[in-house]
Fold this sequence. Notes:
Layout: H1 2-8, E1 18-23, E2 35-39, H2 42-53, H3 55-61, H4 72-90, E3 95-98, E4 101-104, E5 107-109
Amino acid sequence: KILDFITSLGFEDVAAEVENAHRTGKKRDDKPRPIIAKLYSRPFKRRLIQAAKSADGKEILQGVRIVEDFTPSDFNARKKALPTMRKAYEDGKKVRFTKGKLFIDGREVSVA
């Protein structure tokens, strides 16, 4: 399934990029379970997420979402940091969120 979705977004030789994939959660009749995929390459992951978020990608995927999976603590920290991240990105700065920490132009920024 994962390879089919990635290939449909225009990527080739995707089998070499996917290290592992599995479904999570309990089986339910009304909805398919999420799939977690571990990728070998961060640059590929960034390109994949960007392609999935594009208008063409959304049309191709027809409701399937491809998102980064965060730990609960990283998810909450990133959620708090989003306004700061957006502002820095709009100002043309390099923004990175890694391991629960926000970096803008290479410097760690505290998020309250």
